[in-house]
Amino acid sequence: MDPFGVLFGRLVREKRGIENLSQDGLAERSGLTKARISDIETGKIGNPQARTVDALCVALNIARGERAACHAAPASGLPPRLLEKLARHFGADMPEATEGELEAFLMAKAQEFREMRERLEKLAETEGRISELVNAANAALGEGDFEMADDLLREAETVQLQSSTIVALKKQAELRIERGNATLVNGEVAAAAGHFERSSRYFSGVDTELEADNRHECATLLRYYGYRYKSAEALHEARSALQQNLGIWKQDAYPEKWCRTKNALGGVSWRLSQFDVAESAMPHLADAKTHYEDVRAYCSEELLPKMFATAELNLANVYSSRKLAKSDAEYETNLQLALNLELSSLRFLSKAGDPEAWGIAQHNLGCSYINLSNIRSDEAKSATDVENAIRHAELSFEVRNPEDSLQYWLASCRTLGEALLNMSTYSITTDAAQYVRQAVGVLRGAAARISPTEHPHQWAEIQKQLERCGEPGLV
Q1: Strand (E) positions, 22-68?
Q2: I need a labelling partner for 262 at 20 to 30 A (CA). Which of 68, 132, 179, 304 fits?
Q3: Where in the chain do CATH 1.10.260.40 domains reside?
Q4: What are the DSSP calls for 90-146, one per residue?
């Protein structure tokens, strides 16, 4: 049997004669070139594009049945490999079937095959990588290789998803996140959390990893809001989002993201121990301790060392909490443990390679030394602790500045100011006024960068420190 292009070309030539049209006239009516029409009528194009066939059918009033009649018989319309495979399956499934039933089956399959290839041809009219993949899939179908065609179409689907669908979803998510940020500005935490979760759900069923990544970023926004405004409500919403992600970031499949989520959950619980109702403090601390110890138990100096170091730093914060200890003696022991953890974490961190984490470690060491100095009964040991606190707080400034990390910079200012003030109170200090002047300079510099409306917690704490310096509060 002649291929479709030959049979269709004869039909076009016959219909053009009936319509009394020249090739020029048909070209004008169909929007095709005269050369293209000539190639079709002479059968030079064995398988003309679907849009070309559509244009000629409309121009010449070719009926659907006439067009279908141009398709070859099933045996020539199906690739030999596919024809053999279909006939074999048919015989196995229906061993008692007649030749007529087999012919009808193959004719139906041939029609399905042609329609599928026509759809792929239309898809292939798009440009770029998708077009290449669809054309390759069509060629594979032509060879009867359905497995290869499916692989190519799967890749095309992924390319389409990444180039179009996911790009659109990311934009949609960004807009929804901004709605959440706007409601946070208005203090509507629950509404903001709803917007944030909706932004993550846009990716549900499309890309689970993007869904979880987006949710983590939104949880971070809630965490920062909770830290800045001491909002237990925001922290509870952040915890809920992070716990959802643990259902996605399984330990065995995504170890690093599992550790990141566990560390974040520990941070939320630690802050809740400070900002939530008093009776919940100990359960929150215990929860934070569990999260951090889970990470330390899973990681090591060789496996995810940065996550291991982060867990050590965070666990030190838990041990630094006075609420965890039942006595001053136990608290002093816990502080010594916290210092050991913080010093240990510096083995995995470098100022050049990870300046933010290195700065956090230096700052936290300063805080731990201050806390330890406050419970010492020996003034000389206490003074040594404060000297260490000053040294580590000053080191943190080497990687912190208000333009890049205002919150971290402010924390270092407050810690250094506190250490300087404490040093001024010791009887063994020879020039107490000098330490006070240094503290005033640091604290006033910090206060000049913020306002009581935008940073109420930081502002209030700095005012208390300035009052201890004998300085009037700032307005």
Answers
A1: none
A2: 179
A3: 4-127
A4: HHHH-TT--HHHHHHHHHHHHHHHHHHHHHHHHHTTS-SHHHHHHHHHHHHHHTT-H
Task: For 35-77, give the DSSP string.
Answer: HHHHHHHTT--SS--HHHHHHHHHHTT--HHHHHHTSPPHHHH
Q: How far apart are CA 72 and CA 65, in angstroms?
A: 13
**34-38: long-range contacts, CB 8 A cutoff, minimum separation 24:** 37/12
Q: How confident is the model at residue 236 (pLDDT cuts 50, 70, 90)?
A: very high
Q: What is the pLDDT of residues 249-285, one digit of tens each?
A: 999 999 999 999 999 999 999 999 999 999 999 999 9
Q: What is the pLDDT of residue 161?
A: 67
pTM: 0.61
d(CA 279, CA 273): 9
Angle at 429 between CA 427 and CA 434, to 5 degrees: 130
The structure tokens 């290449």 sit at 132
Q: How far apart are the first and last CA of the chain?
A: 95
- The CATH class, in words, for 349-475 is mainly alpha
Rounded distance between C-alpha atoms, residue 207 and residue 373, angstroms: 51
Can you give the pLDDT at residue 475? Answer: 39
Q: Which CATH number fits domain 4-127: 3.40.50.970, 1.10.260.40, 1.10.101.10, 3.30.1300.20?
A: 1.10.260.40
Token look-up 């239309």 returns 122
What is the band of 186 on the pLDDT scale with cuts at 50, 70, 90?
Answer: confident
The percent of residues in the chain predicted with pLDDT above 70, rounded, is 88
- Provide CATH 1.25.40 ranges for the chain: 349-475
Q: State how far the Cα of 282 lies from the Cα of 302, in Å rounded to an integer.
A: 33
